[in-house]
Amino acid sequence: MTLDEILKEIKKAKTIVILTHETPDGDAIGSSLAIKLMLEQLGKQSDVIIPEYSRMYQFLPKANEIKKDSEIKKYDLAISMDCANLKRLAQNEYFENAKRTIVIDHHGSNNMYGDLNYVNPVSPACCEILVGMSEYFKIEITKEIGTCIMTGIITDTGGFRYMGITPDTFEYTAELIRLGVDIPDIYKRTMRNKIKS
């Protein structure tokens, strides 16, 4: 199964980079930081490279560790989050130069450009895919991971207003509230704050 292969590649890699699409939204940034936190539970350090993003997402856990670029030119593993094709991937040379590549996404238009592709077009947000992945990998969803995941779900569903949300979306949301994730705060920061950096 793809998730078993993904876990194998993660465990094997000594250097890991996480990338997402240009002009990233809450789902792109949230999923990138959530997977960074998930990898830490697997004993892996990783670099999140996002050249430019809106200041409104600086409240997210680990946002202060986002890099514009890296001194490492050839990573063992590159993970693309929330991006349907290589052309839209910011700093895609890190992806192309990596020994192995993984794509995690929810866009139906994804052209499966990774060595391993985990794409669920039914999911309303890339962040929601990470809930199932964390269960499969036996990773504990902490309040920090939950905050990143909820940011992606809220922004990609327009605050639960768009088609595509499922009963699972609300079940995950309820679980994250139990963990102490402050949904009203995330909503206020991301849905009402339209300031661009």
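(the above was protein one; protein two follows)
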Amino acid sequence: MIYGYVRVSTREQKEDRQLIAMEEYGVSRENIYLDKQSGKDFNRANYIKLVKKLKKGDVLVVKSIDRLGRNYNEIIEQWRQITKVKNADIVVIDMPILDTTQNKDLLGTLISDLVLQLLSYVAENERKNIKQRQAEGIAAAKLRGVKFGRPKKYKPEDYMELYERFERGEITQKQAMKIMGACQTTYYMVINEVKKMNKN
């Protein structure tokens, strides 16, 4: 039996390219398992179901090694479990050398294992680099004064103060709207209320 495994990291990402690659390889739709989850570990519901189903002679197809996972040690362990313990095969479409259905002699197995270790290391290293780039980007944004989290909620007395600052020419209407975190309609509605309060 030939099974396919498809993974995207978030619910917003599309799995279309991977599904097309599976169908072109010859995996039927009902044998494709999909997870919309990070590849940092293998605690994924559909992946676990799929591995439990695998038996001797079955083939697991993935588009690329990082779709299987991104943790170096865990990829190696999963590969060992599937190919050595379950005696199933793995095919990585984007890397034909990682096709355990081919070259089953000692040299072929050695080359496949070496390439797997190298690619698994690259996949995990890229995951670490992404996290580091994100942290550096956030730190740089904070230094530029970018605020994270929800904007401050303004109370009526704050609106009055903003209106008075606008009246004194200290800020523009656009700046007042930005400070309030309000669209133009909300801004004018609030200002009209403030004006009414001033008249009373």
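Reviewer note on protein two: The longest strand covers residues 2-8.
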